[in-house]
TrEMBL record:
Lineage of the species this protein comes from: Bacteria, Bacillati, Bacillota, Clostridia, Eubacteriales
Named cofactor requirement(s): Zn(2+)
Function: Catalyzes the base-exchange of a guanine (G) residue with the queuine precursor 7-aminomethyl-7-deazaguanine (PreQ1) at position 34 (anticodon wobble position) in tRNAs with GU(N) anticodons (tRNA-Asp, -Asn, -His and -Tyr). Catalysis occurs through a double-displacement mechanism. The nucleophile active site attacks the C1' of nucleotide 34 to detach the guanine base from the RNA, forming a covalent enzyme-RNA intermediate. The proton acceptor active site deprotonates the incoming PreQ1, allowing a nucleophilic attack on the C1' of the ribose to form the product.
Domain tRNA-guanine(15) transglycosylase-like: 11-373
Its EC number(s): 2.4.2.29
Active-site positions on this chain: D89, D271
Record: residues binding substrate: D89, S90, G91, G92, F93, D143, Q194, G221
Biological source species: Clostridium algifaecis
Protein name: Queuine tRNA-ribosyltransferase
GO terms for MF: glycosyltransferase activity
Keyword Nucleotide-binding: no
Gene (name only): tgt
Reactions the enzyme catalyzes: 7-aminomethyl-7-carbaguanine + guanosine(34) in tRNA = 7-aminomethyl-7-carbaguanosine(34) in tRNA + guanine
Pathway, per record: tRNA modification; tRNA-queuosine biosynthesis
Chain spans, region RNA binding: 252-258, 276-280
Length: 376
């Protein structure tokens, strides 16, 4: 259940109550694709850096170790030792982005595993069953993510099929939640708005799925080829047509600036691999924008990554030391940087919530973007 606590213009501050706890929104979900954050970051670490929601991937976990294995071990929460909310994406994005050979039909998608090439079929029912076995807090509907730009005719047909798939997802989830041996009988379902960069297709789809009374609504198919300006335009067009008493989730986005701009347009939930991926490659976020710790100028720098940051990395280690770890190819380098970056994102969301609560979000947004754009 979503409770709107405050609204300033389009900016929303809320609470989302789930069977695994209450989520304060706006929120950034930390991406643990295979039930782990890449970079040797544990579920215990996640709590220490303020993570509220962990996100895992249906497609990847169905292949390794297998959703049946996770079900036998008591579900994803027990498996990875995480007692807060988990969102699982439907696997749709991976099917369309990873599979080299795929065939889309009304029943679902036929494709080959990116691991061993074996033939796999996934449709709405299969996605729901896998996510039910994982027993996540929130399951995402199975949809087609179309790369931008795409021909209008193809996008229109794809959206219509995605709507039909969503209806099947809802029926199957209701069935699974009613079974006596289902681990999480309170699993929630979020629908996904698609439509490429076509405003009218997006708006019409938003209206249709809004009538389906789902637990939340996502805006999908963005950050896949279009410009930031196009993305912001689509968010502005779509959000007014989604239910205002349900959480709104912008999938796979993005940079700190993207997040501030999307919050300003009414978005509540975010996820992105960017902070962990960048951290593993020595790129870290600071109050003055990103820096690369491999830069020669940090060789003798005995200051923390960010002097104002309170993360475990900045409280204990210097830029010079972390740079040395990268040069020596020590795994600890990645771990320290991923922890810092995820803390940066989770703390950013806390500051955003505080700014909305304190009625100074517009000023906060302006100051932050100016800081990040300033040169060191």
């Amino acid at each position: 259940m979503y409770k709107l606590l405050k609204k300033q213009g389009c900016v929303r501050r809320g609470e989302f109550t789930t069977v695994h706890g209450v989520v304060q929104t706006p929120v950034f979900m930390n991406v643990g694709t295979l039930a782990a954050i890449k970079g040797a970051v544990s579920s215990v670490d996640l709590k220490n850096i303020g993570c509220q929601v962990e996100l895992s991937n249906t497609y990847h976990l169905s292949l390794r170790p297998g959703d049946d294995v996770i079900r036998k071990l008591g579900g994803l929460h027990k498996f990875m030792n995480w007692d807060r909310p988990i969102l699982t994406d439907s696997g749709g994005f991976q099917v369309f982005s990873l599979a080299q050979i795929r065939k889309i039909k009304e029943e679902g998608v036929y494709f080959s595993s990116h691991i061993d090439g074996r033939k796999i079929f996934m449709g709405p029912e299969e996605s729901m069953r896998i996510q039910s076995n994982l027993a996540s807090t929130i399951a995402m509907a199975f949809d087609e993510c179309v790369k931008n730009p795409a021909p209008r005719d193809y996008v229109q047909k794809s959206v219509e099929r995605t709507t039909r798939w969503l209806k099947r997802c809802k029926v199957e989830m209701n069935r699974l939640n009613s079974l006596p041996d289902t681990i999480n009988k309170n699993q929630m379902l979020f629908g996904i708005n698609q439509g490429g960069t076509y405003d009218d297709i997006r708006i019409e789809h938003a209206k249709i799925i809004s009538d389906m009374n789902l637990d939340g609504y996502a805006i999908g198919g963005l950050a896949v080829g279009e410009s930031s300006e196009e993305m912001y335009r689509i968010i502005e067009k779509v959000v007014p047509y989604l239910p205002q008493d349900k959480p709104i989730y912008l999938m796979g986005v993005g940079t700190p600036t993207n997040i501030l701009e999307a919050v300003d347009r009414g978005v509540d939930f975010f996820d992105c691999v960017l902070p962990a991926r960048n951290g593993r490659h020595s790129h870290v976020f600071t109050e003055h924008g990103q820096i690369n710790l491999l830069n020669e100028k940090y060789k003798l720098d005995d200051s923390p990554i960010d002097s104002k940051c309170n993360c475990p990395t900045c409280r204990n280690y210097t830029k010079a030391y972390i740079r040395h770890l990268f040069k020596a190819k020590e795994m600890l380098a990645m771990r320290l940087c991923v922890i810092h970056n995820l803390y940066f994102y989770n703390n950013l969301m806390k500051e955003i919530r505080d700014a909305i609560d304190g009625n100074y979000f517009p000023m906060y947004k302006k100051e932050k973007i100016e800081q990040w754009n300033a040169k060191e």
